[in-house]
Every structure is written in C-alpha cells, then in structure tokens.
Amino acid sequence: MDLTIVVAFLLLTVPAFVTPGPNNLMLMASSAKFGAVRTLPHMAGVNIGYPLMLFLIGLGLGEIFTSFPALQSVLKYLAAGYFLWMAWHLLGLKMGVDGGAARPMRFFEAVLFQWVNPKAWVISISFISAFMVPGDNRMVSLLLITLGCVLVGPVASIIWIFFGKQLQVFLRRTGTEKFLGAILALLMLSAVILFLV
C-alpha cells in the first residue's frame, strides 16, 4: 500500500469507528449501567471479533454472500430482530446492576455479535473493496487493513465507554435513566429502519 492509500484508509477508519453504531451504543449503555471495568470484556470481544470478521471476509467469505444473496437477507433480518429486541429492553433501562439485564455482554457474545452487526458488515466489505490490493500483495494489504482496525477500534471503544461512565454519573444524579433508554431505543430503531430500507 502506498502512503496515499494508507492516509485515505485512516481518514475513513476513524469516523467509521467513532460514529454511533450498534457496538458503540451497546458499549456506552453497558458502561452507563455496569461501569467501565465490567464493560471491558465486551470491549475486548468487539475489538477482537470485528478484525477477525474483517480478515475472514477478506479471505473470501464475502463471496459467499455474492453467490448466495439469500444468506445476506437472512443475516439482515436476524440482525433486525436482534436490534428490535435490544430496543425493547433499552426502554426499561435502569442504572446500576439492580435493574434491567443482570450482566454486561460477555467476551464471546461480543465476538459473535459482529456477525449479525450490519455496520460491521458494511464497513468490512467497503474497506476490503476500497483498500485491498489485488495480486501478490493481497494478503499484505489485508493484514494492514486488519491492523488498522485493531489499532483504531479500541480507541473508539474507550471514548464510548468513558462517555457511558460520565453518563452514568449524570443519570444517577438526575434520575433520567428511562429518558436515556428511550433515546437509545430510538437510535436502534432508526438503525433497523435504515438498513432494512
């Protein structure tokens, strides 16, 4: 990869990872509810699961969905169902470990979640299409793309976890947990509508 391609990749990677999406919203909600430390396994699962998914797609898994578009539709509707379920549960959000879900997402749950995360699929296929070099350097470029995600992803996650922790303090003081839950549920519903349309 030449320097121009690396700069373009980094310019796209930072906003792609920092903007709201299912991973970031769930990390923020988990941090707000359970605290930053209990959210770390979830964060690790996201930041290992996503680069692994991207790498496997780069090796050719994406071609399966090109050959069998029905599988992509199944994935899309499974993701929509999961997000609707999450939105429903976010409506009853209460801060602290005594309300709502009993625990934060576990490491392997977060790793597996990447496979039904539409933003992760879109970003993976976009990055691979735009930045993977054909021919002999294909594997090197795939490894560099994956490395870029490994480096940028945790920084974005920490930002959202920190924001979630600050939000937890604010919400506990003001008692506005249900308001946050409604906003997060609305964001999840918006995401479902956008990727189903």
UniProtKB/TrEMBL annotation:
Bilayer topology annotation = Multi-pass membrane protein
GO-annotated molecular function: amino acid transmembrane transporter activity
Which Gene Ontology terms describe the biological processes this protein takes part in? cysteine export across plasma membrane
Where does this chain mainly localize? membrane
Q: Does the keyword ATP-binding apply?
A: no
Listed InterPro entries: LeuE-type
Transmembrane spans: 42-62, 74-91, 111-133, 140-163, 179-196
Asked whether the UniProt record includes Zinc among its keywords, one would answer no
Swiss-Prot/TrEMBL keywords: Cell membrane, Membrane, Transmembrane, Transmembrane helix
What Pfam families does the record tag this protein with? Answer: LysE (PF01810)
Q: Where in the cell is it found?
A: Cell membrane
Q: What GO CC terms are in its UniProt record? A: plasma membrane
Q: What is this protein called?
A: Transporter, LysE family
Gene source species: hydrothermal vent metagenome
Task: Provide the organism lineage as a comma list.
Answer: unclassified sequences, metagenomes, ecological metagenomes
